[in-house]
Amino acid sequence: MNLVMASPTGLCFGVRRAIGQLESALAEYGNVYSLGSPIHNPQEVERLSRLGLRLVESASDVPCGRVSFVRTHGVTKPEMEALAKRSRVVIDGTCSHVRATQNRAKSLSREGYRVVLLGDSKHPEVRAIMSYIAGDSLVISGKDEIDEGARYERLGVLSQTTQMEASLAAIVAKLILITGEIKVYNTVCRATIERQKSIRLLAPNVDGIIVIGGESSANTRKLVEISESLGVSTLWVELVGELDRGWLEGKRSIGVAAGGSTPDWLINDLTCKLQTL
Ligand code: SF4
Question: Which CATH number goes with the domain that contains 22?
């Protein structure tokens, strides 16, 4: 069996930086409290928990005077304020791309634009971005949610960092027909675009693609969707143990891709296992 790795794949720079920040903080302070899971990969979270990472549901669960951590997706403005009040130190792991999108949202709403954000309304990154908007705003997950009968004076359009550029272009193409003035920022992250592109390049050259990444990882899910949309047999695994021998049968060439929150050690485990098969 021939293994072909997608390139680039695996940890994006935002998650790599956050893991580095957490490892340093855990070595220095012992315990670090993260509001929600810092990385959408349960195995990596488990490894960090053994080093002293503690997950909490809300800022009020961080014991006073301890060290807290803000994940790459960022947290809402009120959550950030609450963390700052309770913690001795707040380590801000918010990715620079996410921070830039929060700032765009803030400035658009200050300039009087109604903000339209392409994304999943339940995703923590989206909730955090929306918390920086003072005026009218709207989260949509795709072009089909746009009411063609509506009329807008000024719209400011942004995207969750892990969405597809094609989806952003599709909503802009529709919104432009019903809006007087439209300002668009392409806030899809380059790391995401490159990983999505690597799947498209891989697909025509392999018999199947294995995508490795956490079930809750939005960017892993997108990789799976792209692979499936290209008509390639696709297997999504979170753990090496989930490799399906039946799926491998008859495939001579297998592509391997990983979401931006999948640690290197998990990718290595998977490729080693595939080689032994
Ligand atoms: S996918 Fe992009 S925006 Fe998200 S953490 Fe990675 S580098 Fe940052």
Answer: 3.40.50.11270
